[in-house]
């Protein structure tokens, strides 16, 4: 039957839909497909996709306690003395009656894919009982009174020999120690002279093109390298170079800038550098400029919760979050959590308590908010005060928050019990949910995305060995030896990420999957950008243990770095 074409008549589709309706339906369908497909890219970068589309892998052996695996690893390394495991204090017997075997059998029954710790070091009931037993409070909480810094006591300790430096050099070959120290000092002189020649006053030196670079991270501030180098030049007794840097700060470091700056970067590099230089030298110029710069950062805290946003506009006083941080809706844990040390000192040196009040409020918000399994996710809304995504990392986005907690406790002469409690509570949650031991016996701290682990560590996370070692002495007595051993094993894992790379320099991130351990598996992570975290942990472990292996590992990095530029 022929249908006459009548003006305005649109033949119905077999589904009874007119053309505009079909268009809307197809538009909706395509949007739904795009949304579902795009959601795959939000899954953690782990074996989750494999679990969706592939058959499960064979079961792996259960995970034992860190020290027990370390004991087996030590036995293996006696056969291969090239990289001996760092010695650690002996641990107490805390596994009577074959409990380890029972845990091993239980883990075998449950383990799929890579093994992971699902219980704390001791049963949760014992941990709770230990907490309820209480620890004597060493003093008032830091939040209960004004922060006070004993400058005279600090100055008296500046030139006091510290553990691991010149005190015990009688036990080392004097010529070797002296040669190593002078070589590192020579490297610093070379770096400073090259910077002064090609980029003096700029934020960075680009070595290939031999020119300076300002970037857009500091809101128009210049000389980031100068200010970041002040304390290093002073501690290395490079007097002439220090005076050059000081003169530049006095004459050329201007604060009348009007760009957008990173709250975090300006604080740790500029304010931190200026405060360090002031405490080392007493030079007033450093104190004055640190305080003025701190005042320029205060508008970042103008939010409903008092949680600062990541970017502050020096001209307008407005603030915003980074566009990449949950579409501009979140502040970053490592950024707003890494202000406490500097801001307390700004209040102490200026008499203006607003700096201390700002960071104390951050603690107040974090103490109040619910934390999934005791963990601190990386993204927090400065408007609502709610977590925006359950991504937890001891590396990038989270790292220095934990470091500032333990250092706040130590900086306060061990009176900031709030920082102490937050640190050890967070560390216990990390032990329970993120700590893993690979089949090869390497201890690592994975990343957590809503209950699913990414079995990787970033280079940034390698500071944790030093941090855990630093905090071991103030842990509960029954866990001190455990934390020293844990610190040693994590640092050993990070050292392995160096030795297993082609250049012998560690990658930006390394994985534990597909039968490969402590190696970069993606090209986008196979690079080294002068990150210091691994060597930092070597230094902390050397100071704590005097095990010469850490000095040797540090020197290996020096030699590899030298060979890469020759």
From TrEMBL:
Region (Disordered): 71-147
Keyword Transmembrane carried by entry: yes
Cofactor entry: Ca(2+)
Parts of the chain that traverse the membrane: 23-43
Positions with biased composition (Basic residues): 102-121
Tree of life domain: Eukaryota
Statement: the UniProt record of this protein carries the keyword Transmembrane helix: yes
EC number(s) stated in the UniProt entry for this protein: 3.2.1.-
Key words of the record: Disulfide bond, Glycosidase, Hydrolase, Membrane, Transmembrane, Transmembrane helix
Similarity comment: Belongs to the glycosyl hydrolase 47 family.
Protein name: alpha-1,2-Mannosidase
Record lineage: Eukaryota, Metazoa, Chordata, Craniata, Vertebrata
Gene giving rise to this polypeptide: MAN1C1
């Amino acid at each position: 039957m022929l249908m006459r074409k009548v003006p305005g008549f649109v033949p119905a589709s077999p589904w009874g839909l007119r053309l505009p309706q079909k268009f809307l339906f197809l538009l909706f369908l395509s949007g739904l497909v795009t949304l579902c497909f795009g959601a795959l890219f939000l899954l953690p970068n782990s074996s989750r996709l494999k679990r969706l589309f592939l058959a499960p892998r064979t079961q792996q052996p259960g995970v034992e306690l860190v020290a027990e695996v370390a004991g087996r690893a030590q036995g293996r390394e006696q056969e291969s003395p090239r990289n001996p495991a760092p010695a650690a204090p002996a641990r107490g017997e805390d596994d009577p009656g074959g409990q380890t075997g029972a845990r091993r059998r239980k883990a075998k029954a449950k383990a799929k894919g890579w093994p992971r710790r699902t219980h704390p070091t001791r049963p949760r009931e014992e941990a709770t009982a230990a907490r309820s037993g209480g620890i004597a409070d060493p003093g008032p909480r830091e939040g209960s009174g004004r922060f006070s810094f004993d400058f005279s006591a600090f100055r008296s300790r500046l030139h006091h020999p510290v553990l691991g430096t010149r005190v015990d050099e009688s036990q080392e070959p004097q010529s070797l120690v002296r040669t190593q120290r002078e070589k590192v000092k020579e490297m610093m002189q070379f770096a400073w002279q090259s910077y002064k020649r090609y980029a003096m006053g700029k934020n960075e030196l680009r070595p290939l093109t031999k020119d300076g670079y300002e970037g857009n991270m500091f809101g128009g501030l210049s000389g980031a390298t100068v200010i970041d180098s002040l304390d290093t030049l002073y501690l290395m007794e490079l007097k002439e170079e220090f005076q050059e840097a000081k003169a530049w700060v006095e004459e050329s470091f201007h604060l009348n800038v009007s760009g957008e700056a990173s709250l975090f970067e300006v604080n740790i590099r500029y304010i931190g550098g200026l405060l360090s230089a002031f405490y080392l030298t007493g030079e007033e110029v450093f104190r004055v400029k640190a305080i003025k710069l701190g005042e320029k950062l205060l508008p970042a805290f103008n939010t409903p919760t008092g949680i600062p946003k990541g970017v502050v506009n020096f001209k307008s006083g407005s603030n915003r979050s980074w566009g990449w941080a949950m579409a501009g809706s979140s502040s970053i844990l490592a950024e707003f959590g890494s202000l406490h040390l500097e801001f307390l000192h700004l209040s102490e040196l200026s008499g203006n308590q607003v700096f201390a009040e700002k960071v104390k409020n951050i603690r107040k918000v974090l103490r109040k908010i619910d934390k999934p399994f005791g963990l601190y996710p990386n993204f927090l809304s400065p408007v609502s005060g709610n977590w925006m995504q359950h991504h937890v990392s001891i590396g990038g986005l989270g790292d220095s928050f934990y470091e500032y907690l333990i250092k706040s406790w130590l900086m306060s002469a061990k009176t900031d019990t709030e920082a102490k409690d937050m640190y050890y509570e967070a560390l216990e949650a990390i032990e329970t949910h993120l700590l893993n031991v690979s089949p090869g016996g390497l201890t690592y701290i994975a990343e957590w995305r809503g209950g699913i682990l990414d079995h990787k560590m970033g280079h940034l996370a390698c500071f944790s060995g030093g941090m855990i070692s630093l905090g071991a002495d103030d842990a509960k007595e029954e866990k001190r030896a455990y934390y020293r051993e844990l610190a040693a094993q994590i640092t050993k894992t990070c050292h392995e990420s160096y030795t297993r790379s082609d250049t012998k320099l560690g990658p930006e991130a390394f994985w534990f999957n597909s039968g490969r351990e402590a190696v970069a598996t993606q090209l986008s992570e196979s690079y080294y950008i002068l990150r210091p975290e691994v060597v930092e942990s070597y230094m902390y472990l050397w100071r704590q243990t005097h095990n010469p292996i850490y000095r040797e590992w540090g020197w290996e990095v020096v030699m590899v770095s030298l060979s890469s530029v020759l």
